[in-house]
Amino acid sequence: MKSHRVGRVVEILATLQSGKNYTASQLAKILGTSRRTIYRDLKELGAIGVSYHYDARTGGYTMEPEFFLPPVDLNLQKALGLLLLVHKTGEQLQMPLKNSALLAALKIENNLPAKIRRHCEAALRSISWQSPAQAPMSELDKTFTQLQEAIARKQKVNIQYHSLFEGEDIELELCPYHLLYNQRAWYVVGLSSMHNSVRTFKLNRIREMKTLDQRFADEEDFDLSEYLGRAWSMMPEGRIYNVKLRFLPKVAQNVAEVQWHSTQKTTFNNDGSATMEFRVDGLGEIAWWILGYGDQVQVLRPAKLRQKIIETAKNMAALNSYI
User: What is the distance between the alpha carbons of residues 77 and 120, in angstroms, rounded to a whole number?
Assistant: First the structure.
């Protein structure tokens, strides 16, 4: 829900909470907007599960009293934090059960003291959140909920999955252990029958999924942090490398401001460049990250990583020289 509409939508809820019957024209007059806007807001409220009724005889709208929560005890900071999470970050991230979260926030917001509610509405208008590019997923709620229930009940699932590695659709049984949001998308981590090992599968590549009656052994000893180990992001390769990079002055400060890895060590040099060192599991993921900095980074070690970057750069040059 767009931030500039939040205050108006909450005002509609507050108005209908009175128990009176209001027409679209009356709501438009109260809120200082058009009937068309009111219809659009009501439609959006209905889409996220707000229970209101239209009386064809009077042409007015009413709302079920039980929709509303009892008054909540939130101070200004807590209220703003909650609404910021839902109305700003939540609307742009690929969050599962997003509409349910928005509905809960609207219920809470509607019962805030008027002074706190007005302050939050004003604050939200002056705050924006620009999320990175993400993998779209039309069935995120359904897939996420099905996997979460399978994890809770220790049930296996059968999935048809589009594998980029195999270059085709594959079918396997999965013992799902953990759901993970990383690198702009949602993943499920679990034991794959095809690979006979713990693997990571991207949710938006799951073509079909069926929960099976079969249960799997309790994996209380599964630790996501231990599984990921020192992978640069989420794909451990089984070998630790000492990586040393030199970032040129143009990007050095910008790169050093971010904690990219738990093992990161940064040293600024007299010429304004920065030397950064990492101990990472595998070179594939960090290589793609390095390439993103183009000619502003040097690979000092290991030699294997330096050669990988050189070969990729040569292939890029060759590919683009034909255009």
Answer: 9
Please state whether 195 falls in left (phi above 0), alpha (psi between -120 and 50) or beta: alpha
Residues 44 and 100 grouped into a single domain: yes
- Looking at the structure, tell me whether residues 251 and 205 fall in a common domain: no
pLDDT of residue 54: 82
Q: How far is CA 66 from the centre of its chain?
A: 31
pLDDT digits (tens, 9 = 90+) for 5-26: 556 776 777 777 666 788 888 8
Q: Which domain holds residue 106?
A: 1-129
- Note the pLDDT tens digit of each residue in 36-76: 888 888 877 777 667 778 888 888 888 765 555 455 566 77
Q: How far apart are CA 160 and CA 98, in angstroms?
A: 25
Distance separating alpha carbons of residues 250 and 94, to the nearest angstrom: 33
Q: Are residues 210 and 272 in the same domain?
A: no
Q: Are 212 and 158 in contact (CB under 8 A)?
A: yes
* Percent with pLDDT over 70 in the chain: 82
Q: What is the CATH number of the domain that holds 266?
A: 3.30.70
Any domain includes 73: yes
3-state secondary structure 151-194: HHHCEEEEEEEEECCCCEEEEEEEEEEEEEEECCEEEEEEEECC
- Tens of pLDDT, residue by residue over 206-257, are 999 999 999 998 766 788 888 888 999 988 898 999 999 999 999 999 999 9
Q: Name the nearest CA neighbour of 217 among 156, 173, 286.
A: 156
Please check whether residues 7 and 118 belong to one and the same domain.
yes
Phi, psi for residue 177 in degrees, rounded to 5: -110, -35
Number of structural domains found in the chain: 3
